[in-house]
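Collaborator request log, item 7. Partner lab (contact: R.S.) asked for a structural prediction of Enoyl reductase (ER) domain-containing protein to inform their binding assays.
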Amino acid sequence: MEHTMQGLIQEGDGEEHVRLSNDLEHAAPLEPRQVRVEVMAAGVCGSDLSCVHGKYYMPTPLVPGHEAAGVVAEVGSAVTYCQVGDHVVLSTFGNCGHCATCENGEPGNCGFGGLRHTHTEGEQALWGFANLGAFAQETIVHENQAVPIPKEVPLPSAALIGCGVMTGAGAVFNRARVGIGDTCVVIGAGGVGLNVIQAASLAGASQVIAVDRAASKERMALEFGATDFVLADGDDFDSVAAVQQLSGGGVDHSFEVVGSTKLLADCLPMTKAGGNICAVGVPDLTATVTYPFQALHQNKNLLGIRAGGGKPRKDFRLIANLYLKGRFKLDELVSHTAGLDGLQEAFDALK
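Returned to partner:
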């Protein structure tokens, strides 16, 4: 290959098994519909921590990182979606773009692709987390994964659109389809939860109740559009009763964002008949959820949600444009910045 680069390698489960390498290369030459991207910013979110801790059962060795933005450095001979110099947000959907599923507007359900080797270190092939392997100075992706956005959007803020923002906002816009006057509860007011909150507010929800165990989350939850904040203080706190009281008997849409099967089960009695229970958070992939049949029987909808049901080529630009118009918060979501050698510091901040 032409040159080596810096990047992170995960060699097993646990933070102690992630190391910085100066000798990464691309796994293969650029194909006709691929794009080489210089990664300028990559977010560290809960999914990265879950991946490193083995909750997603990813093969190793692996280049982690999946929430990124950068600048197009090179395009394949058949690329039409972007050009050299474009600022792009990277999508984890390695969809083909032309099958019936893609043409029906469901790129996240496309069966094309799958895990692939994105980089190498010497003779060792390295898997790329979420089709990206974004914790490296460069990565090569399918052109469908590189979504151009206006250059006025700062890349550190833009990077968050690819996962945390899309997962939260997409759950509201694409899956629950919150409407004017609807009521919502959001369990977990972290990065993804804040995007559920601001998207629900933007969609016209009349009440958005944020629930979290940390009192420190209240300020940002209210700034992002929550109308109420419930401090779930201790294991014995009855969040269901609190939400039912605040909402007058239950909400139209409940969003579990923590990744707790217990909290997802709690969402059922928080939700009124005919409402949506939205499974946004991701627990260990082997987890099971148990709930009383009658709790779901009243025409309630239990919605599985992967990456916000996103349509990246539409949704990423929508969010970027809303940001430029002052209607969607991104900058406030960036809490810390560090180089590739600062991953442990970022994980510590997440905890």
